[in-house]
Each structure stands twice: as C-alpha cells, then as structure tokens.
Amino acid sequence: MDILLTGDGDLVVTNDDLALTDWAGQERLQMAMCRIRTDAPDWFHHPSLGASLGDLYGEPNTQETASLGMARIKEALCFDGYFSPHEVSVEAVPDFDGVHFFVHIVSEDEERPLVYQVKVEFVPGTYKQLG
Fold first, then answer.
1. Half-sphere exposure of 95 (CA within 13 A, CB side)
2. Measured between alpha carbons, how far is 30 from 116 in angstroms, rounded to an integer?
3. CA 15 from centroid of its chain's CA atoms
4. Helix and strand counts by DSSP (H, E) for the chain
5. Can you give the pTM of this predicted structure?
6. Tens digit of pLDDT for each residue in 67-104?
7. DSSP states of 109-131 as a string?
8. Taking CA 110 as the corner, what is the angle to CA 106 and CA 114, rounded to the nearest 5 degrees?
9. Distances (CA, A) of 31 to 9, 66, 93
10. pLDDT by residue (tens digit) across 1-11?
11. Which of these, 7, 55, 56, 87, is most buried using a 10 Å CB contact count?
12. Cβ distance 15 to 9 under 8 Å?
C-alpha cells in the first residue's frame, strides 16, 4: 500500500493528487498501522485481517490482557506472510487507563528497526497513535 496515509488512516492529498510513501519502511509502517488498528472482520474481502484490539475493552488492566493484545498484534501482522514472525516483536506497557503497545519491525532494508506505537485505552473504540 504505497498511498500515503495520515496517522488516523486518512488519505494524504498534495497538488490535487494522492501522495505516495517516500520509502519502503514508511509503507511497511502504514501496513502495520492498518492491521493493528483494524477490528476483524471490518475488511469485507479480508475478514481475518485485524488485531481486534477493541475487544480488549472491559478486560482487566493486567499483564494477561497485555499479553493477549501482543499476541493479537503479532498474528495480525504475520498471518498471511506479509511480515514474518522473526521480523516482528511486540512489547506492552500497561498504565492506569490502558496499554501502550510498541511494535518493532526489523527489516534488512533499514538500518534501525521500524517502530509503531499505539495505546489502547479501556474506553470503547479508542486508539491513540503515539510519536
């Protein structure tokens, strides 16, 4: 998906045309963002795509809930081979009102790991992209 998106997933338009990503790492981060922020089965033609982090609402703010979110993120990124399991690591840091997830994607094309951060608050449908 080489069409540039904002942090909220909206299309970016420049000079009356859709903007494109500037580098392969940016495209991979966008794909990670879309998969992480999607609740399956939101994509009609890809019903299993998405981490379904919205399902964490109402769960206790525990390490077990964080572990569930980490597993869902890794599965959403790797289920079809777009990312391989050895390229992706996920960390979770619970705080008083939710969980911060830090997704690290290692790529041989990049000097440093790509990092995507998202906070899942325990309020329905609330995701915050960090950084």
1. 8
2. 9
3. 29
4. 2, 6
5. 0.81
6. 999 999 999 999 999 999 999 999 998 888 888 999 99
7. TSSS-EEEEEEEESSTT-EEEE-
8. 50
9. 10, 22, 22
10. 677 666 666 66
11. 56
12. no
